[in-house]
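Thread: magnesium ion complex, take 2
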Amino acid sequence: MKITEVKTILTSPNQNYLFVKIVTDSGLYGVGDASLNGREQTVAALIDGYLAHMLVGRDPLQIEDFWQLVYRGSYWRGGNIMMSALSGIDMALWDILGKVADKPLYALLGGKQRDKVLCYAHVLGSTNEEKIARAADYVKERGLKVIRLRAGLPAAHGTFGNQRGQAGPKVEPWNPEEEIAGTIDYFVKVRKEVGDNVGIIYDLHERFSPEQAIYIMRCLEEYRPYFIEDPVAPDSVDSLRSVRSKTAVSIGFGELYKSRWECLPAVTERLADYLRCDIIRIGGITEARKIAVLAETYDVKMAWHGPNDVSPITHAVNWHLNVSQYNFGIQEDGTTDGLIKNVIFGGPVYDNGYLFMKDGPGIGCDIDEEAAAAYPFRKAYIPVCRQEDGSIHTW
Ligand code: KDG
Ligand code: MG
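Output below.
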């Protein structure tokens, strides 16, 4: 079997996505997700202008060899653009393998260890007051066992995905004093609303300095967060070490990691309880298998990144990993029911706190290319945070 064509599909149903479709001379094809919020066109250019030429004529089932060819063979190591491109291609190749074997992806990964996947969903609303008021109903109506909040007052308002139709990134204010007080207050209020039996994950989104994060986490210890996500930025491992050594709260970390090697200290020193890598950033399924095994060795659980800005293809891959891997922790369910459902078919279905998926070959998703073309790509940016003195702060 040989690869005959590699297509990139940019589309914007509810927000921008980049899909990869790899076609073979057997008539079988595979689909993957290479979306990188704000930089989709650059990833597409890398696939179209470079990686596609390396793929056409190859045997699609030599997946590991292609991964090593791109990661090591081409000398320069990958950043976010290269790793997103490689991840989208890797997913499509595993999808082809599943179709050839006529088996779901999880079967190729060793088979199911569980039938359903515990998940958490984001409490949504336009203000924290609205989210506090809705949190308990949200749990009751949807049957969630665990919910997720995101810190940020008011910087995170409306900034989940990207901002379209603007010449550049939208600027959001960041005032540390207000943010610290508001971050603690918000969590405490939601805990009171939902009671003690609901898990609450709190995403601090890499925005705080180590001493700010330590203060916030110590204040929240008695309110028992399920885990605190990304208390500090990933750039300095010492920041994470410092937070870990001074707080007792569980930590989830790693959505910005770009490789297995970046994960090492968090895993081998047990600086995190939940490793939250994003399969589109760390090299796809080929690399996700290795990261999960590394984490299993050190008793670290997996909580794969599953935000709103990746497509049902990625949510489906997360699901296959979760049912087949021993050290599953919990899954972020950032799936959207928006117009993306007109473009991508398949993917996990939510029911009463868990995610389920029907059996089918490969990843179990397909793309309607005509529908994708009906939602043209629109340039968009992730917003930025600026402090009162005008300086940039991590978004
Ligand atoms: O595009 C950025 C999002 O993927 C990110 O803000 C989502 O932090 C996130 C999460 O935990 O879902
Ligand atoms: Mg996050």
